[in-house]
Every structure is written in C-alpha cells, then in structure tokens.
Design goal:
The protein is α+β, with helices and mostly antiparallel strands. Helix content is 30%, strand content 37%. The chain has a three-stranded antiparallel sheet with strand order 1-2-3.
C-alpha cells in the first residue's frame, strides 16, 4: 500500500474532490477522487474523509491496474 499526501480538497458543481499525491515507482502522481456532495450529507467528518479517500483509491486502482487482453481487437490501432 502506498502512502499519499493530501494536496487539496474542494467542492464544485455539487461534487466534493480530494487530490492526493502518491510516490509511484515512476515518480510522483496526483490522483483526484470525487464524490457527489449529497452522498456526504449526514456523515461525520471522519466518514466523509473515508469516502473521499476511497474514491481516490478507486481512481488509483484503475490507473495502475494491469492491462487486460481483449479478444477481437487488432494489435495495432490508429487513435
């Protein structure tokens, strides 16, 4: 498990955001997780923080997940 440093937290357009900088093998990477503000209503500060940290962990997991082989696609594509 990597340790990150909270860079910034803010609200915008009905969403709460948390930016965390993590030192990856390739260097520092900033991940930004978000949660609808309405989902945080009624939660304690600790629960709100946990929800935002969970969102950041989800973003990081999707970013560093291994690639998957998808059948039916050519090896090279122009994008």
């Amino acid at each position: 498990m990597a340790t990150g440093k909270v860079i910034r937290a803010w609200q915008e357009n009905g969403w709460a955001y948390l930016a965390v900088r993590v030192q990856e093998d390739s260097g520092p990477v900033e991940y930004i997780g978000s949660v609808p503000v309405g989902d945080l209503d009624g939660l304690t500060a600790a629960e709100q923080r946990a929800a935002l940290i969970g969102a950041v962990k989800g973003v990081r997991a999707r970013s560093v997940a291994p690639a998957v082989e998808l059948g039916g696609f050519p090896a090279n594509v122009n994008v």
